[in-house]
Amino acid sequence: MQTSRDWIGTATVASLLALWAVLTMVTGTIDTLRFPSPVQFWQSLKQIATTGYADGTLLSHSLHSLKLVIMGFTVAAAVGIPLGLLMGWSRRAEALINPVFLLVRPIPPLAWIPLAILWLGLGDAAKIMVIFFAAFVPSVINTFTGVRGIEPNVIEAARMLGTGRWRLAREVLVPAAAPMIFTGLRLSLQASWTTLVAAELVGALAGLGRVLNVAQQDIYPAMVMVGMAAVGAWGWATTRVLAVVEARAMPWLAVRA
User: Fold this and answer.
1) pLDDT-flagged residues of the chain (< 70)
2) Rounded to the nearest 10 degrees, what angle do helices 124-148 and 91-104 cross at?
């Protein structure tokens, strides 16, 4: 089944690439001044990969963006998951924390950019702060939902067996809520990449967002597409890494599948 899905996905991508080449290079339906051809894309990719663009190579820009995403995402998960567990487990904690969370939750992550710049300047710390808020909300909501979705009789059975609070949280709450926790982490990771690029469009000295910003100013559509493709590729790669972690953390789901 997995092999069949892989072949279908490969065929879909190949068909889109072929259509792209036909519309830009054969029929001329799409103006290459607005939407680059595969050849122009490849030339721009070679340029940034070898000689560089926007004060860095593709690798240096990518690693800088990856570092910011990992830092912001990790801090958000480290704060958001325990907070979601606490709110889901304790009604008192929910009553205390939820009003503040409901005020923060509707604020778009990009709305934090001006405040982050005022507080932390144009450096990496401001971008990490914005990524944190983007990744924080999904991790809290999904963890909270996962805990609240646990069947009450499961918790009561654990209590009847004399399970302590910490052991109950470690051996019952976290495993039972794990599928929703990882769903929240996937959403958080996606939000991290989306927010990073937007944050790097303002005052960044390196990163994929800077590549997109400089290419837009230079009216360089092919390089814009290279930057977009790099963001997509790194987003896919980090999502695959998270999927591996998820499979190892929940081997019972992999066996069932």
Assistant:
1) 1-3, 154-155, 158-164, 252-257
2) 140
Q: Is residue 6 assigned to a domain?
A: no
Q: Please report the pLDDT score of residue 136 as a whole number.
A: 93
pTM metric for this prediction: 0.86
Cβ atoms 134, 194 nearer than 8 A: yes
DSSP string, 9-57: HHHHHHHHHHHHHIIIIIS--S-TTTS--HHHHHHHHHHHHHT-SSSS-
Q: Please give the structure tokens belonging to residue 103.
A: 């005020």
Task: Give the total number of structural domains in the chain.
Answer: 1
Token pair listed for 240: 């695959």
User: Which domain covers residue 95, as residue numbers?
Assistant: 36-256
3 state DSSP class of 188: helix
The CATH code of the domain that includes 125 is 1.10.3720.10
- Tell me whether residue 19 is in a domain: no
Task: Name every residue whose Cβ is closer than 8 Å to that of residue 35 and which is 6 or more positions away in sequence.
Answer: 24, 221
b/e burial code for range 33-68 (CB count within 10 A of at least 16 → b): eebbbeebbeebbebbeeeebbebbbeebbebbbeb
